[in-house]
Design a protein that fits this description.
By secondary structure, this protein is of the alpha/beta class. It contains 20 helices and 32 strands. The structure holds adenosine-5'-monophosphate-propyl ester.
Length: 646
C-alpha cells in the first residue's frame, strides 16, 4: 500500500462522538487519572439503575473482579423499555430472510413480543432467575426475543451455534445443566430449508436429566417429530400470554449469559458474562467504535451463536437504541451481490463482518459493490482474525469508496466487547492494524515474565486492568478460569489478563495482532481448539496418535491440518472417515482440509509433541529449528515426504 495512514473523513469526524485524537487522548487520560471515576461516570450516564450501586470496583478477590456492587438493573429494560417513550415506532430489528422476506419490528413490537416470551418462560415452563436456558436457533427474530426474554426474568441463556452437531450441543446442555432448550423446526439457507429440531432430539437422547422441555419455534412448518410431554409449539402458545411482564431487578454481577468457546486444552469453556458491566460496554462500544447515531441502520453479519452476534446484533445495537439488521441467509446467495443489495435496500450505515467474508465477497465479485448504491455506508468493520492488506484495500476502495473508516476491531468472547480498535472519527488508520486500545482499556505487550516488549518485538497481548465487560468465570470451573487467563505475572499487585494472542507495538504506538500464541486455530474467524479436535480423533479405533495444527488458508485465514499415526495399515478412506467423525462430534466447522497419515510424530524425549515442527511442515516451510533433541529426528524427513505425497 503506498499510503501509510488513512485519516478520518473530515465530514464524518465533524459529527463523530470522538472526533479527534486529542479527544481520544483526553478520554484515555481521564481513565488513567481516575479509573473508577471514569467508569462510574459512564455507568451513571448509560444505565437506568433500578437501585444504585455502592462501589464501582471490588478487587479484593482478584481475578474474580466485581463491578458496580449492589446495583440493580435489567438488560431488557436497557435494550427496550427505556426507548419506548421516544423510539416506540422506530425499527429495532430489521429482519431479512434467506428468500428476501423482510420484517421490521419496532421497539414497541419488540417490547410486546419479549414480554410475552418472558411470561411464557415464567408461567408455562417455570423458568426462574438463575436457571439456564440453551438456545439452538437460526438467525430469526425469535432468537433475539428469547435472549431478551431470558434477560427479563433473570434466566441465563447459553446459545449454541446452529452449526454445532448434536454431540457438541449435548455437551454444552449438560455442562450448563439447562432446564429448557429453545429451538426452531428449521430455517432457510441458500434457498433451501434445513432442520434444527432433529439435532436437538438427538442431543437429548440418553442421559440428559436436566432438560424438562423443548420449546420449538416454527419457522419452516416442517414435518418434525414431537415428543409428547417434552416438546411445545411456541407459535401455538405465545398469543395466550400477556404482553406485560415486569423486569426482574438483577444484580450488577448476576450472570447474563454463558457462551461456550474453545481453549487450548480440554473441553469447551462456558464463558460467564455479567449484567451491568457487559451491557455498559456493549452500548459504549456501539457508540464509540461504530458511532451509531440518529436513524443509522447497523448490520453485523455474524451469527448470534458467536459473541459478535450477542454483542453487536442484539445487546449493543438495542441498548444504544439503534436499528439492527438480522439476516437469515448468507451474503453470497443468490449471488455475490446479495450483501451489497441489502446495504442498498436498507440504507445500511455501518457494516460489520469478518475478513473471511470480505475475501469470499472479493473473490466472487470484485466489482459487484459498484453495481449498488452504497452511499449510506459510513463505517466498515472487521473482526475475528487479522485482515490481510489486499482484503483491506478492496474493502476500503471498492466497498467504502475511499470514504468510509475501516474499524479493525480486536476482541474476544471473553472480553465481551471491542478492546483495541480505531475510532472512526479520530484514528489515523494503518491498514491491518487494530491501532489503539479503546479509552478505559489498558493493553500491554509483554514477555512471559511481565517485562514490556520493546517496540517492534512480538510479545503476549495482555490487559493490565480489569474492565467492566470482562469474563467473570468459567461456568463451574473457577480453577480453570484462573489458570486459563491469569498467570503468575502481576501489575500493581493484581494478576494480568492474558489474551492468548501475540501482538506487536510500533514506534507510533499502533498495536498489530499477530495471531494466537496457544494451540487455538482460527478458522474463518471461529476458534477451534486443537486439543478438542484431537480428543475426538483419538477416540477412533484406527488411530494410535494424532496432532492437529493450523495452516494458513487463502480464504479461511487458517485451516485445520491433522497428522495421524494409525494402529495398523488401513484400506479405509481415512480422510473421509475422520472428517465424518469430526462433523458428528463437533460440527462441519471442525472438518480438516488436510489429513495426512504419518509413521510417527516428532516428540521430545519426554514425550511432548513438537507442534512447531508440524506447523512448519504443514506450511511447507523448511525446518530450521534444532531437531537433535527429538526422540527420533529421522521422523521429520518421513513426515515431510508423507505431506508431499498426500
Ligand atoms: O485471535 C484473536 C482473534 O479471534 C480471537 C477471539 O475469538 P473469539 O472469542 O471467537 O471472538 C471472535 C470475535 C470477537 C482472538 O483471540 N481476533 C479477533 N479479532 C481480531 C482477531 N485477530 C486479529 N484481528 C482482529 N481484529
Amino acid at each position: 500500500m503506498n499510503k501509510q495512514f488513512f485519516n478520518p473523513n473530515p465530514e464524518f469526524a465533524k459529527n463523530a462522538r470522538v472526533g479527534s485524537m486529542e479527544a481520544y487522548h483526553e478520554l484515555m487520560n481521564e481513565a488513567k487519572k481516575d479509573y473508577e471515576g471514569f467508569w462510574a461516570k459512564r455507568a451513571d450516564e448509560k444505565i437506568d439503575w433500578l437501585a444504585p450501586y455502592s462501589k464501582v470496583l471490588d478487587e479484593s478477590d482478584a481475578p474474580f473482579y466485581k463491578w458496580f456492587i449492589d446495583g440493580k438493573l435489567n438488560v431488557s429494560n436497557q435494550c427496550i423499555d427505556r426507548h419506548l417513550a421516544d423510539k416506540g415506532d422506530k425499527t429495532a430489528i430489521l429482519f431479512e430472510g434467506d428468500r428476501g422476506d423482510v420484517e421490521k419490528i419496532t421497539y414497541s413490537q419488540l417490547s410486546q413480543r419479549v414480554n410475552k416470551f418472558a411470561n411464557l418462560l415464567k408461567n408455562r415452563f417455570r423458568v426462574k432467575r438463575g436457571d439456564r436456558v440453551v438456545l439452538y436457533m437460526p438467525m430469526i427474530p425469535e432468537a433475539a426475543y428469547a435472549m431478551l426474554a431470558c434477560a427479563r426474568i433473570g434466566a441465563i441463556h447459553s446459545i449454541v451455534f446452529g452449526g454445532f452437531s448434536s454431540e457438541a450441543l449435548k455437551e454444552r446442555i449438560k455442562d450448563a445443566s439447562a432446564k429448557l432448550v429453545i429451538t426452531a423446526d428449521g430455517a432457510y439457507r441458500k434457498g433451501k430449508p434445513y432442520l434444527l429440531k432433529p439435532v436437538v432430539d438427538k442431543a437429548l437422547e440418553g442421559d440428559i436429566e436436566c432438560v424438562e422441555a423443548v420449546l420449538v419455534v416454527q419457522r419452516n412448518h416442517e414435518d418434525i417429530t414431537w415428543v409428547d410431554g417434552r416438546d411445545y409449539n411456541y407459535c401455538d402458545m405465545i398469543d395466550d400470554e400477556s404482553d406485560i411482564c415486569e423486569a426482574e431487578a438483577m444484580d450488577s454481577e448476576d450472570p447474563l449469559f454463558l457462551l461456550y468457546t474453545s481453549g487450548s486444552t480440554g473441553k469447551p469453556k462456558g464463558v460467564q458474562h455479567s449484567t451491568a458491566g457487559y451491557i455498559l460496554w456493549a452500548q459504549m462500544t456501539m457508540e464509540w467504535v461504530f458511532d451509531v447515531q440518529g436513524d443509522d441502520v447497523f448490520w453485523c453479519t455474524a451469527d448470534i451463536g458467536w459473541i459478535t452476534g450477542h454483542t453487536y446484533i442484539v445487546y449493543g445495537p438495542l441498548s444504544a437504541g439503534t436499528t439492527t439488521v438480522m439476516f437469515e441467509g448468507v451474503p453470497t446467495y443468490p449471488d455475490a451481490g446479495r450483501a451489497w443489495k441489502m446495504c442498498q435496500d436498507h440504507k445500511i450505515t455501518q457494516f460489520y463482518t469478518a475478513p473471511t467474508a470480505i475475501r469470499v465477497l472479493h473473490k466472487m465479485g470484485k466489482d459487484e459493490p459498484t453495481k449498488y448504491d452504497l452511499s449510506a455506508l459510513k463505517v466498515l468493520g472487521t473482526v475475528g482474525e487479522p485482515i490481510d492488506p489486499p482484503a483491506w484495500k478492496w474493502y476500503h476502495e471498492v466497498v467504502g469508496q475511499g470514504r468510509c473508516a475501516i474499524v479493525d476491531t480486536w476482541w474476544q468472547t471473553e472480553t465481551g466487547g471491542h478492546m483495541i480498535s480505531p475510532l472512526p472519527g479520530a484514528t489515523p488508520i494503518k491498514p491491518a492494524s487494530a491501532t489503539f486500545a479503546l479509552p478505559g482499556i489498558m493493553a500491554e505487550v509483554i514477555e512471559e515474565d511481565g517485562t514490556p516488549k520493546k517496540i517492534g518485538e512480538t510479545g503476549l497481548l495482555c490487559i493490565t486492568k480489569p474492565w467492566p465487560s470482562m469474563i467473570r468465570n468459567i461456568w463451574g470451573d473457577a480453577k480453570r478460569f484462573k489458570k486459563a487467563y491469569f498467570g503468575d505475572v502481576e501489575k500493581d499487585g493484581k494478576p494480568l489478563y492474558f489474551s492468548g494472542d501475540g501482538a506487536v507495538i510500533d514506534e507510533q504506538g499502533y498495536i498489530t495482532i499477530t495471531g494466537r500464541v496457544d494451540d487455538v486455530i482460527n478458522v474463518s474467524g471461529h476458534r477451534m481448539g486443537s486439543a478438542e479436535i484431537e480428543a475426538v480423533v483419538k477416540e477412533d479405533d484406527y488411530v494410535a496418535e494424532v496432532a492437529v495444527v493450523g495452516r494458513p488458508h487463502e480464504i479461511k485465514g487458517e485451516s485445520i491440518f491433522i497428522y495421524i499415526v494409525l494402529k495398523q495399515e488401513q484400506e479405509k478412506d481415512m480422510v473421509k472417515h475422520i472428517n465424518n467423525l469430526l462433523s458428528q462430534n463437533i460440527g462441519n466447522i471442525a472438518k480438516a482440509d488436510d489429513i495426512v497419515i504419518v509413521a510417527g510424530l516428532p516428540k521430545t524425549r519426554s514425550g511432548k509433541i513438537m507442534r512447531r515442527i508440524l506447523r512448519s511442515i504443514a506450511k511447507g516451510e523448511a525446518i530450521t529449528q534444532d531437531i537433535s533433541t527429538l526422540e527420533d529426528p529421522s521422523v521429520v524427513k518421513q513426515i515431510e515426504e508423507a505431506v508431499k505425497n498426500s
